[in-house]
Structures are given as structure tokens and as C-alpha cells.
Design a protein that fits this description.
The chain has 459 residues and is an alpha/beta fold. It is built from 18 helices and 16 strands.
């Protein structure tokens, strides 16, 4: 059932609700704070830095209501603590992707936000808003992963962040987990951290039923490269090779590693064992960039240093597929220092050539370039620089011309714009293996595992 929503900040709720009731038959009122969650509970959650859990519970309840009602009128909340009424309600409006009705026209203060605010009820009823906050995105990841539950192997059980993330992941019931290492030792360490790992499977690398078979398979795969059976037996003792072989043989659907392992050591076994898809003889990477009000894809930020036109086109196509996994309708911008025909040079020619190849390979892909980042992201700039583009001003997949640009770009967004960067996600492999930053947080691990599970499901 399709749900339209309105967010009411007005004190005159009853009158507005009466008008809405005359327009829609199956409607309900949702009061996030003061109704679903008491004001006292909300105040305590903010004081104890538990507002994330509070907001995610509110999103979950709102999504439940969306399944049953044609229209949801959301009652505004009163201020508490250091959070003013207007600030608090705008925050909740973003998380619920709900346009804002108020008695005064406040569009002017909203110019840098996608959130729609109006004092005109007809405008509100006609407006379709598209905001995805990081909390909303995390909730959607859990829902998608839970709908097709996959088994993920985590080789790095020696890292306490992995153990803490494992507990959170098991609580979501969205994935099955396998930790590599001695079960008794891991559980002793977990207990000292106050972590419960019940429901997780363990495989001891020093003694297990799979070791000899894995060594034989690895030997068969790598003997043309000079790997002997004895060498294969030695290699399979490595946690990353063992975990990768679990994915290859179907004992796990995917692997996530890299918290204490270098990127090279994480992805090398995947290149050697799992290999690339037949139609995609290229491995590239992308980052899921969780901005304040939207989710973007950046690529390639970790793998290919100087892609040629063919490689750049392939990165664009694979990154668009990654966007589709997470419910985004990909609009791909091939980035450059030039927009359209405004500049020239070898680097610009490269992007023009990549655009042509991508369109030939995927005629239905919404893609354009070359374009500068401001033209890709800002509609006002796009109208001036590339007015006839279907992508400019609306892009959600950004393909950088080389690794230097991509790596610098994602780190600027991550460190200077408080953006949550999830990745790098590897694209092009037959089965998913994803890398973690060695500086990753527990939250990063949770999100990467959920995304990897979704990739494994092909959604």
C-alpha cells in the first residue's frame, strides 16, 4: 500500500487533521515523542547518548505503520533539554522522510537541505520527498539482509571490534556468522568485554575437518602458478585464505576482513581463488557514502590507479549495479575538471571515451559526463553548466577519473563533512569479499557485513 506522509509542526493540529481526514480515508496519527516514546524516555536517551537507538526505534515503528495506512499525519514534538522544538522536529522529519507543514513559510532557512517546508497544505500534499539519513539507511540494510539471510565469515576474531560487532549483528537476526579461531579462547575474551556470542559458529584454524580438502582445492587452483601441495597446506593455515576458501566452497556466502589485515592481504586470496565474473573481468571498488540526507556511491577509491576508458566504463557500470543493490536508482556522473565541452585535454578525452563505451555496453544506464562535482550534485549549478542532462544536479553515483582523485575525495567527505563512509566494497568478484579499514569502528563493521550479505543475495 502506498503511503503519503505529512509532518505537522503547527499547534493547530486538530484543524489540519480535519482537513486531511476529508481527503484520505485510511489515515492515522503518529506521535514519535510523547506518544510512541514518552518524553521522559526520550530525554534520558539523549542524555545517555542513546539517541541513535531511540531514532531507529521510531523509524521502525513508522515503517510498520506505513504498511497499513494510506496517509500518516505526524504530530510535532515539544522541545526538551538543549534541543529546541523546531530543531527536534526537523531532525525527526529528516529521519522519517516527511515534508514539514508549519504556520509560517520557512523555505528560506531550508535552502541547503532537501527537506521540504511549507505553510501551504496543498503544496505539502503534492510534494514527494526523497531523504535517506544514515539511521534510515542502516534500518533498510537490516531489513534487506533479513529478507534473504546469508552466512558471513569473519576471520579476525582476535580484534575486539569484530567481537562487539558480531554481538550486534546476531541481535539483528539479519545474518549468520562464522568466526575463525579457538571457540573457548574467543568466548573468554568476549566475556571480558561483556560481549555475548551465543548463536555464532566457530572454526578452529589449528584443527578442523576442512583443512586438508581446502589445501587440495587451493593446490589445484594455483599449481599453474607454481604452488605445490605442501605450499598450499601452509597457505590454508592463513585465516584470510581459509575464509576465502569457505566462500569459494559455499560454506559461507561471503567474507568481511581487513580490521587488522592490509587491503592487499585481504583481497589477494579473493583474486586467486574466487576470481572475477565472466562478464566482468575487472575488480573495482566503491564506497557507500552516508550523508546527512542522502546516500551516494563513490568509485573507484581503492583498487585501480589509472583506469583507461574501458576500465572507467566498467567501473561506472559495476558501481551503478552496487547502487541498485541498496534501492537507489543509479544516476552516474563521470567526474572531471571539465563539464560538458567546456574543457579539453587527455583527461577529458578519457572521460568522453568512457561515456561512449558505457552507453554501448549498457544502453539503459542513466549516465553522463564529463562533469565537475558541483555540476553533478547541485541542481542550480547544473542548470547553468549542463542544463539538458538527466544526471547533472541529481547524480548519486560518482565515478572519479583515477585512484588519487577517488581516494582523496572520499576521505575529504568522510573527515570534513562528517560523512559515514562504508567500504571499500569490491565489485566484479564471483562472490562477495569486502575489505575493512584498519581504523574501522564497530558500526563500520556492522554496516559492511550487512551490505556484504545483501551483495551475496544479489539484491
Amino acid at each position: 500500500m502506498k503511503t503519503d506522509r505529512i509532518y505537522l509542526l503547527t499547534a493547530n493540529f486538530s484543524k489540519i487533521y480535519e482537513i486531511i481526514s476529508a481527503k484520505f480515508k485510511n489515515i492515522t496519527i503518529f506521535e514519535p515523542i510523547g506518544g510512541f516514546v514518552s518524553i521522559e524516555e526520550a530525554i534520558l536517551a539523549f542524555r545517555e547518548d542513546r539517541e541513535k537507538e531511540l531514532i531507529k526505534d521510531i523509524i521502525k515503528e513508522f515503517d510498520r505503520l506505513k504498511k497499513d495506512y494510506e496517509f500518516i499525519a505526524i504530530r510535532g514534538c515539544e522541545a526538551f533539554g538543549n534541543i529546541g522544538k523546531f530543531e527536534l522536529n526537523l531532525m525527526l522529519a529528516k529521519h522519517l522522510n516527511a515534508p514539514v507543514y508549519c504556520t509560517e513559510n520557512l523555505k528560506a532557512i531550508n535552502k541547503n537541505s532537501k527537506l521540504f517546508i511549507s505553510s501551504n497544505l496543498d503544496e505539502i500534499l503534492a510534494y514527494k520527498q526523497d531523504i535517506i539519513t544514515p539511521y534510515k539507511f542502516e534500518k533498510e540494510l537490516v531489513d534487506k539482509a533479513k529478507s534473504d539471510k546469508k552466512t558471513i565469515v569473519l576471520p579476525e576474531s582476535a580484534d575486539e571490534r569484530i567481537l562487539k560487532a558480531s554481538e550486534l549483528l546476531i541481535k539483528t537476526q539479519a545474518v549468520n556468522l562464522i568466526l575463525l579461531g579457538d571457540e573457548s579462547g574467543i568466548k573468554t575474551e568476549a566475556k571480558s568485554l561483556g560481549v555475548n556470542l551465543e548463536g555464532i559458529k566457530f572454526i578452529n584454524l589449528d584443527k578442523n575437518e576442512y583443512q586438508d580438502g581446502f589445501a587440495s582445492k587451493l593446490y589445484e587452483l594455483r599449481k599453474h602458478k607454481g604452488v605445490t601441495l605442501e605450499k598450499a597446506k601452509e597457505m590454508i593455515l592463513d585465516k584470510t585464505y581459509f575464509g576465502t576458501m569457505m566462500v569459494q566452497t559455499g560454506l559461507a556466502d561471503a567474507m568481511v576482513s581487513g580490521a587488522i589485515t592490509t587491503t592487499a592481504d585481504t583481497i589477494r586470496p579473493a583474486f586467486e581463488i574466487i576470481k572475477t565474473k565472466p562478464q566482468t573481468p575487472l575488480v573495482s571498488s566503491s564506497f557507500v557514502m552516508c550523508m546527512d540526507e542522502e546516500i551516494l556511491i563513490y568509485a573507484d577509491c581503492a583498487i585501480n590507479p589509472k583506469p583507461d576508458a574501458q576500465t572507467l566504463a566498467r567501473i561506472a557500470i559495476d558501481s551503478a549495479n552496487t547502487a541498485s543493490y541498496f534501492g537507489l536508482e543509479p544516476r552516474v556522473a563521470l567526474l572531471s575538471y571539465s563539464t560538458g565541452d567546456s574543457g579539453y585535454g587527455e583527461d577529458v578525452d578519457l572521460v568522453h571515451a568512457a561515456l561512449k563505451i558505457a552507453k554501448e555496453l549498457e544502453p539503459n544506464l542513466v549516465i553522463d559526463g564529463p562533469m565537475q562535482y558541483d555540476a553533478a550534485i547541485d541542481m542550480q549549478v547544473a542548470k547553468k553548466k549542463l542544463p539538458n542532462s538527466d544526471v547533472a544536479g541529481r547524480a548519486n553515483v560518482f565515478v572519479f577519473p583515477n585512484l588519487s582523485c577517488g581516494n582523496i575525495g572520499y576521505k575529504i567527505a568522510q573527515r570534513s563533512a562528517n560523512c559515514i563512509a562504508i567500504g571499500p566494497l569490491l565489485q566484479g568478484l564471483k562472490k562477495p569479499v569486502n575489505d575493512l579499514s584498519r581504523g574501522c569502528s564497530v558500526e563500520d563493521i556492522v554496516n559492511t557485513v550487512l551490505i556484504t550479505a545483501i551483495q551475496a543475495g544479489g539484491k
